[in-house]
Every structure is written in C-alpha cells, then in structure tokens.
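It is worth pausing here to work through a concrete case rather than discussing structure prediction in the abstract. The textbook approach is simple: state the sequence, then state the predicted structure, then interpret. We follow exactly that order.
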Amino acid sequence: MKFPSLQALSLALKKVLLRFPLEIAFALTGTIAASVLIELSNLGSEAENFCIRLIMVANLGLVSALSGTLFSESRIYSATKKNLLRLLTVLLVTGFFFLLDPLKSQADILRYFLLALAFHLLVSFAAFTGRNNINAFWHFNKTIFLRFLTGGLYSAVLFVGLAAALGSMNLLFNFKFEWDTFAILWVWIAGIFQTLFFLSGVPEDINSLEEDKSYPKGLKIFTQFVLIPLATVYVVILLAYEIRILIEWELPKGLVSSLILGYAVFGILSLLLVYPIRNLEENRWIKSYSRSFYFLLIPLIFLLILAVTARVIDYGITEERYILIVLAVWLSFISIYFLFSKRHDIRMIPVSLSLITLFTIYGPQGAVAISKDSQIRQLKKLFGKYDAYRNSRLQALTKPVDTLDRERMVNILGYLIDRHGLSSIKSISPVDPEKIEQHFISRMKPDSIYMISNRGQIRQEVKDSLLRRLNIPDDIETKGLVRFKIKNKKVVDISGYKRMININSIPEEDSVNTPFNIDGKIYKVKSDTSEQLIVSDGTHSVSFDMKQHLRKLLGESKTFQKNINRAYIEVPDEKMIVEKNLDQKRIRLVLYQMEGGLRRGRNKDLYILNYNGVLLVP
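Step two, the predicted structure:
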C-alpha cells in the first residue's frame, strides 16, 4: 500500500484552497464561532447569541457557495464572474445573519433548517441545470454522498484517537483537559478536516461522469433486499389501515403521517439508487416496481391529506401541519410526473423539492406566517366563545371556561410567544407584551439577558403575566407536569432517629421492600405504587398518601420560589416533611423531590410521576 507523501498532501490542500476559497472561509468562520461559543458557555453575554447566529449562516454560506462554484464551473465562467457570484453569496448570507435570531423567535430555527435543506438540495443539481446529462448527475451525487460518509468515518476515528491521547495525558501527567477541550477538538475536526476532505473529493470533470458505466453491486443488493422490503412493509400496513378506515368510517390517527412519509422516503431512495441499471434486461422488475410504487402512493397521499385536514379543522394550522400539507402536494406532483412522463428525469426530485422548500420559508404564503395567522384566529375564536374578544382585543375572561378550552388558550398563547415572539400577539393583547418583557429585563443584569435559560425565564414571566391579565387560572389544569424540590437537600436533621431509609417511587433493592430491625422489631417499607408509601412493623402499619401531598403542594405553589430556569419549584423544608404515627413511634418522611401533574382526558385526575427522599424511624 502506497501512502501519500507530504508533498502530495500539500499540493492537494493547495488545490482545494484555490478551488473553494469561500467555502473554506465559511467553514473556518463557523468553526471559530463554535469554539468561542463553547468557551463562552453560560457566561451570559451577547456574544453567545452572536456566535450561534454566525454558526448558522456559516453553514448556509458553505453550501450556497459550493452550489455557486459548481454552477460557475459547469458554465465555464471567467474568474470575474466567479468572484461576482461569490460576492452575491456573501451578501445573501449576511442578510440571513440579520434575519435569523433563534433566541428571539423559535420560528427562525425552522426557517434555518428549511434554508439548509433547500441549499443542500441545490448542491445536488447546481452543476446540471439545462443539460441532459442525467447519468453524470447520478454519479456526481453518489460520489459526494460516499465522500461525505467516508469523511464522517475518518473524522470519528481521528477524534476518538486524539481524545484518548488527551485523556491519557490527564491520567499519566495530571493535565487538566476538561470537556471544553474535547468539544473544541471535535468542532475543528468536523469543521475543518471533514470539510477539506469532502471538498477534495468533489468531482471536477462533470462531462466525464456521463460516460461512467460503473455501478456498485452492493448498492443493488442493499436496495433490493433492504430498502424495497422496508417500503413494502410500510405500504402493506398503510393499505390495511386505509381499508379499516373505510370499513369503520373513522378518522386516521396522527401516526399515519409518519408511516406514509417513511414509505415515500424508502421508495424514492430505492428508485434513485437503482436508476442507472433500470434498463438492463435482468432488471425489468425495477420498472414494474417504479410504476407500482407511485400508483400505490396516490391513495396514501389522500390518507395523509385526510389525517392532516382532520387536525387542521379542529386545531388550526401549525408549521408541522403546513409542512405535511406541502409534502402531500409535492408527492402528488412527483407521482403524476413519474407515472405519465416518458423522460423520468430524476433531477426533478431535488429541483422540485428545493423550490417548494424555498416557497415555504418567507412571505405571507410561508409556513411561519400561515401558522401564526391560523393560531391567532383559533385564539380569537376561543375567547369570542366566552364574549372575551371585543374591539379586536382579547379581554379578561368573566364567564366559566371549559377545561379543554382553557388548556387550548394557554397552549396557543405559549405557542405564539415561544415560536413567533411577543410581536405576534401585540395586535390582540390587552397590554403591550413587549413592555412587560422590558419590565422583567430591567430586573436582570445587562450581560445575562442573552443566556438561553434567562430568555426562557423572561418569556415564561411574560406568559404568566398575560394569563393573570386575561383571568386564566394558573392552577394544576394549566400547569401540566410540575416539579417540586426541597430547598436544603444537603441538611437533614436525624437527631432522635435510629434508621434512615432511602425512598424512591421506583423501589430499590437496598432500601424499599427490604426489612430492617430496630429494637427487635422487623420493619418494612412498601412502595408498590407511586401513590402510596406504606410502613409496617409486622403488627401495625401507616400509609403516606403521596397524591394528597402533591395536591397540597400544588395548592400552595404560588407562594414558593421558582428557580432561575423554571425547571422546578423550590419548596421550604417544612413543606416537604410529612409525619405519621406508627404505634408509639413518630415516623418522618422527608421528600427531596416530587413530580406530578394532571392526567389528560375527560376524567382528569392527579398522578405521581416520581418522588424520592428519606424515611426516618426513631
């Protein structure tokens, strides 16, 4: 085996730098930003937010610049035209830097992923616009896909090797390499090494690929014996379910959407993988499978539309439902194209998907705008039902509100504030939510308001304030899962007690259900359900009702101190202590933590998810 020399490696590196200068600049920018973000973790500065946005646009810039390079090379552009295209790419991603702010609006996270999807799809066909070289298109995408997987494998092995070396230095020489060192190591391997390795394998001579007749045999075996059987399993299940729906005349369940998309993905991928060998005499089955796949996809698309429509009618449109609708439209187009077109140009798949993805990102027809307007209409309708929507504003509720309607009010308000920002409800809110936000921001240190946890705390405070203003009770029925935690877990007074037993709602072998002896009496603690804790001495027994204690904590929860990121509610020590008499002894239960909530459905009831603490026996 001949290993490459240092000179060959340096020449290859130089070639990549000259061919993809802007791509490598974006990769370096994103890598540096990620390294800084790791070092700034939890420091709460505005730079943290800046780095997150820089990483996002660097990724978008890399793939869009690569698309531009491939396009300009296919059109044999001059150096001037190539540089002009690079300048336009820089201006484009600079605009995205100012448009995308995921810490302010979660909708920007969706926009980012949709942009990344569209730009990655653009890479697949940028060098093949206006040309009838479908075979080259297939071999090009096969090459870059395998190159990416190979680079990922090399990067993983390199990281594991270097991380093990650093870890051994910690062990042998008492170095202090901590988690951030390993995180930064991975960032540089994935951001620089992986990028350089991938770019060095991007084909240059696109025309020569058209004459390439090679085909990996393993690919056919993988498609024929893995992907196609998987797609077949999906379609059998779905068609049987569709027949059941027709017989019982019931609405489809939400899971059906995922199954239909799974069938579409496996089916389309399998057809793409065997495309070059579809016309060979021994592979006639491919054409038969292709027609049957798209033919069977049509009734499943109707099932998908029915499933989404049922939820849109009841709950309005969200981004997820909007995307499902768009995918149903796209799958319909693809099915009709491949069923009736004679060309069967596989470039139509990434081109159409990229265009329809771009269509959904910005503008009044986009996923975010449509979803926001739909949920605002739902909120207006709910408040209007109780005469609490007047003069284009939500008003405080004065009539008794159905529990399910109240939950939906809380959920929609939370969705709009978290996903679309405070500006989304400004036009219908009885008070200016942005002024409420400024009030809570003014109570924080200036350099801490950009921390993710503090952003979440501020949003929650605004939501709580609006709920109070709209007279929506902040009780158990709107809280969902609640976590209570003792304030001083480390200090437990054990004076006067002879035995301390660890208690958990999930029994442990060394504590609960294990008998113990005190003064000749055998005691046993039993926790066979999460709602009752039973202590017995063989003759007498006493029961701690955990559900009753949860109800008591929930009733007093407004007086307790919420922690900074609202992950739990801190409870004074005395509120987490329960005492019961067992014969002549006073048994004390000290709870460290308790989690519970309200069951969904018509028969709402409290439930215990988890609790732990200690039991003290005198």
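Step three, interpretation. The chain is about 60% helix and 10% strand. Confidence is low (pLDDT under 50) at residues 475-479, 507-511, 563-567.
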